[in-house]
C-alpha cells in the first residue's frame, strides 16, 4: 500500500510520520497503564485502597497518562485539519475555525496540567468549567473537520455526475465519504460518551479515556486500509458490474469492510473452489473432453456453464440418493 503512494510528496510523509508517532504514543500509554495497575493493586503505593493511587497525579505514571492522552488527541486533530486543508485545495479560510477549536483545547489542557501538578493553584469550582469545556472542544473540532471533508467530496461527486462523467474503475466518491465518516465515528462516539459520563460524574469515564489513544490511531488506519482495499478491489474487477448492479455504484464493495481473506470474493478462494469443482465428482467423458479441446468456440461460455451446473446438480442428487444411478449389466460367466 505504501509503494503505490508517492513517497516524495509532503502529504504522504506527513500522514506516515504522524501515524507512526500516534502508534508510538499509544504503545507508551499501554506501558504506563500496566505500570499504574501494578503500582496501585500489587505494590499498593498509596494505601489504604488501590483506587486511591489513581487520584495522585503527582505520581509519574498518572501524570504521563494525561500527557499521552493529550498528545495523541492533538496529533489526531492536526492530521484531520491537514487532511481537510488538502481536500479543500489548500484553502486556509476553511480551517480557521477548526484551528480555533484546537488552540482552545490546547489552552484548556495546559491549565488542567498545571492544576493536576499544583492543586492549590485553583479551587475545584474554578477548575471545573475548564474541565467541562475541553472534551466538547475536541468533539466540535472533530465533527466540523469531518463534516467539511465529507461535504467537499460530496460536492465534487455532484459536479462529476452533472458533467456526465462516470467512474468506470476505482473507488466511488460517495464510497470515500462513507469510509471517512464511519471510521471517524469511532473517535466521535467515544468522545461523546466521555462527555456524557463526565457530566454525570460517573467513574466509568476513565475506562473510555484509556481507550482514546489507540482509537485515534485506529481511525486513520481504518481510513487508509479500507480505502486501499476498496480501490484495489474496484480496479481488479475492471469491467464487472456486480457492485454497480447491487448498490448503484454509490457504496464501496464488501471487500472494503472486510479483509480479502474473510471475504467470499477472494480470488484465491474462488480459484480454489473452481479447481475443486473440476477435480471433484464431475465426470467428463473422453469424447466431450476431446471436443472441448479441439473446438473451444463450438460451445459458448454460457452453454458450458449451464452444462457444468447440471452435471454438479445431478452428481449431488446421486450422492443424496434422489436419483438411482443405472448399473451396468454384469458379465455372464462362461
Radius of gyration: 30 Å
In percent, how helical is the residue content?
55-70%
Q: Major beta sheet, specifics?
A: none
Number of strands: 0
Average pLDDT score? 75
N-to-C series of helices and strands: HHHHHHHHHHH
Number of helices: 11
Q: Approximately how much beta-strand content do the residues carry?
A: under 5%
Name the features:
single chain; 334 residues; mainly alpha; 0% strand; disordered C terminus
Description:
69% of the residues lie in helices and 0% in strands. It has helices at residues 10-42, 60-87, 96-117, 124-162, 173-199, 205-210, 212-237, 242-247, 267-279, 286-294, 301-320.
Quickly describe the structure.
By secondary structure, the chain is mainly alpha-helical. It is 69% helix and 0% strand.
SSE blueprint:
Layout: H1 10-42, H2 60-87, H3 96-117, H4 124-162, H5 173-199, H6 205-210, H7 212-237, H8 242-247, H9 267-279, H10 286-294, H11 301-320
Amino acid at each position: 500500500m505504501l509503494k503505490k503512494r508517492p513517497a516524495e510528496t509532503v502529504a504522504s510523509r506527513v500522514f506516515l510520520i504522524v501515524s507512526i508517532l500516534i502508534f508510538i504514543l499509544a504503545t507508551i500509554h499501554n506501558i504506563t497503564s500496566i505500570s499504574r495497575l501494578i503500582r496501585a493493586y500489587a505494590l499498593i503505593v498509596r494505601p489504604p485502597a488501590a483506587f486511591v493511587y489513581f487520584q495522585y497525579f503527582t505520581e509519574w505514571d498518572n501524570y504521563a497518562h494525561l500527557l499521552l492522552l493529550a498528545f495523541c488527541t492533538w496529533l489526531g486533530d492536526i492530521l484531520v485539519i491537514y487532511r481537510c486543508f488538502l481536500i479543500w485545495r489548500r484553502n486556509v479560510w476553511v480551517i480557521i475555525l477548526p484551528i480555533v477549536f484546537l488552540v482552545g483545547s490546547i489552552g484548556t489542557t495546559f491549565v488542567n496540567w498545571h492544576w493536576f501538578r499544583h492543586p492549590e493553584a485553583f479551587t475545584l469550582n474554578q477548575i471545573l468549567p475548564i474541565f467541562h469545556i475541553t472534551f466538547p472542544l475536541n468533539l466540535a473540532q472533530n465533527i466540523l473537520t469531518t463534516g467539511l471533508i465529507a461535504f467537499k467530496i460530496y460536492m465534487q461527486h455532484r459536479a462529476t455526475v452533472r458533467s456526465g462523467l462516470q467512474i468506470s474503475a476505482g473507488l466511488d466518491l460517495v464510497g470515500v465519504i462513507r469510509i471517512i465518516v464511519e471510521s471517524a465515528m469511532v473517535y466521535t462516539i467515544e468522545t461523546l460518551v466521555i462527555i456524557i459520563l463526565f457530566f454525570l460524574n460517573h467513574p466509568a469515564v476513565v475506562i473510555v479515556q484509556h481507550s482514546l489513544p489507540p482509537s485515534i490511531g485506529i481511525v486513520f488506519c481504518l481510513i487508509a486500509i479500507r480505502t486501499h482495499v476498496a480501490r484495489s478491489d474496484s480496479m481488479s474487477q475492471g469491467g464487472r458490474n456486480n457492485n454497480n448492479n447491487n448498490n448503484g455504484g454509490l457504496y464501496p464493495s464488501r471487500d472494503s469492510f472486510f479483509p480479502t481473506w474473510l471475504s467470499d470474493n477472494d480470488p484465491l478462494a474462488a480459484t480454489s473452489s473452481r479447481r475443486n469443482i473440476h477435480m471433484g465428482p464431475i465426470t467428463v467423458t473422453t469424447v466431450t473432453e476431446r471436443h472441448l479441446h479441439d473446438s473451444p468456440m463450438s460451445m459458448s461460455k454460457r452453454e458450458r456453464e449451464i452444462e457444468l451446473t447440471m452435471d454438479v446438480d445431478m452428481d449431488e442428487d446421486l450422492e443424496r440418493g434422489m436419483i438411482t444411478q443405472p448399473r451396468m449389466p454384469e458379465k455372464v460367466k462362461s
